[in-house]
Amino acid sequence: MTTNPSTQPNARSSMLPESDVVIQTENVSIYYGSFQAVRNVFLDIPKNRVVAFIGPSGCGKSTLLRCYNRLNDLIPGARVEGKITYQGVDLYDPKVDPVEVRRRVGMVFQKANPFPKSIYENIAFGARVNGYKGDMDELVERSLRGSALWDEVKDKLKQSGLSLSGGQQQRLCIARAIAIEPEVILMDEPCSALDPISTLRVEDLIHELKQQFTIIIVTHNMQQASRVADYTAFFNAEAGDGGSRFGYLVEYDRTENIFNSPKQQSTQDYVSGRFG
Amino acid sequence: MTNPSDRVISDIAPGEFDTGVSSGRKVFGNVMTGLVFACVAIAILPLASIIFMVIANGLGRFSPAVFTELPPPPLVEGGGFRNAIVGTLLTCLIGALISVPFGVLTAVYNVEFGRGNKLSQFVHFCTNVLSGVPSIIAGLFAYGVVVLTLGTFSAIAGGVALAVLMAPIVIRTAEEGLKSIPRDVRQAAVGIGATNFQSVFSIILPAALPFIATGVTLALARAAGETAPLLFTALFNQYDAKGLREPIATLSVLIYNYAISPYKNQQELAWVAALIVVLLILAVSILARALTSRKVY
């Protein structure tokens, strides 16, 4: 298996001197059955920063993201090669319990997916399954304030989470994610189903959340990446040996470098809107 | 300044857009539409005539007495069949108590844990076979397992026979209900660190509850009308059963016994019992619809 010559020189991210690394991705390839979806990714995620994954559809951004909390385990046939470490622990070590990983690494999905329960229960459920023993009312309020939703829902906590608008539902999902006090929050295109105003609110929220959390966000919206992310990783897809397309990391750098002075031509083409 | 309507051009022939004008295409369409309605009418006819006959023959004797009194001996007028009403409710309840926990948990295994593996495929196949088993065979099974063991016909044996018939219905509808819960919600539950068990029993099963309730009511509606499996399990009883371990009357067996009896009063009671069974099944079906409309997804 040949590595893509255009990717390797920059893919190794050694440009993060000012911050501790929480997640290391070392030579990771991801397969669905025999199909290779992602090839040879090296990527370090710095603590308390926002990292954006951008790139065309089918380049493996979401696939890689879902490895960081082992959500790919749910997909039959998904397999990871290489090494992903979280605070130095190999996430794919057979001894690692994925349920514990997901408590530390939370997730917000593309489509808002509140539980069909009350707003209060949406947040309390996660805390309860994780053995939270403190004041539940206080935790619910704190989480909803954290996701800038409290003022809108404080009088209707007993109502179903599904009764909220799309933007509110997504912020409820963010509140649910931060209620279990993870260290990393993965966001898989969290704004793709939201209107511009709800999107702005979520982006503001991401800015606040990075004080406490490390955030990795997959987005198709390059303006969004440039607004919220400290670092940006550009992925692209290419036809492999057998003709099937695989995704790989093209370039990973500070966001302003990716958008203003990328080192790779394909990055330049993508961020300026000239695809291919 | 020209009038704007002068600038509108048209090449539509007079009457071209009118509804009344017939071309071969439109006539064919109308004929086929008529044919479809005729088929619908033919399909509904049996149900309509059953309901009509049952009401016409049963309503005359319909009175509070049928709910409160026992069947009279031959050649005695009046009476009712409270024992059979209680018996139908009781055998159905026993059937539900057995089939619902097993059925729902089987569906949970198939959809949430087995996820299409060999065992769940096998269980799925068995469910299909079971749903095709004639009800008399279910009765034979209960006769062999319960009646011969306990040494007596009983409500328990009737309930077991009905449970065998209800289980596939419960399993299938519960599976459909569980499958209807979006994958996003499962991922959300797992994504916040819930174990498989927690996500299934706290999130997915409650969300699927309206579906499951629908399945249970449909299964009850089927069981309430079953006769064959009860003939040699619950048997029949002229009087109130004093316990679960003795023969008990049910509406369907009462209809069977009295409809073929030569006495006019008993035949009339059979018609009233038929009316009550039909109303019971109708009510349960309406309840099932109401429950389905409450689904979350």
Q: Can you tag this structure with a few keywords?
A:
heterodimer, A: 276 residues, alpha/beta, Rossmann fold, six-stranded mixed β-sheet, four-stranded antiparallel β-sheet, 11 helices, globular, disordered N terminus, B: 297 residues, mainly alpha, MetI-like fold, 2 domains, flat
In short:
Chain A is α/β, with parallel strands linked by helices. Chain A is built from eleven helices and ten strands.
Walk me through the structure.
- The complex is a heterodimer of chains A (276) and B (297).
- Helices cover 33% and strands 26% of the residues of chain A.
- Chain A has helices at 8-11, 61-65, 98-104, 119-129, 136-146, 150-153, 166-179, 196-209, 222-228, 255-260, 265-271, and strands spanning 21-32, 35-46, 50-54, 78-86, 89-90, 105-108, 184-188, 214-218, 231-239, 245-254.
- Chain A has a six-stranded mixed sheet.
- In chain A, a hairpin with a 2-residue loop joins strand 4 (78-86) and strand 5.
- In chain A, helix 4 runs parallel beside helix 7.
- The longest helix of chain A has 14 residues, at 166-179.
- Chain B folds into two domains: 25-61; 67-292, Orthogonal Bundle (MetI-like fold), CATH 1.10.3720.10.
- The longest helix of chain B is centred in the N-terminal third of the chain and has 35 residues, at 24-58.
- Chain B is 71% helix and 0% strand.
- In chain B, helix 4 crosses helix 6 (155-179) and helix 8 packs antiparallel against helix 11 (264-292).
- Chain B is an all-alpha fold and 297 residues long.
- The A-B interface holds A 69, 71, 74, 76, 99-100, 102-103, 106-107, 109, 111, 113-117, 125-126, 129-130, 160, 162, 173, 176-177, 180 and B 115, 182, 184-195, 198, 202-203, 206-207, 296-297.
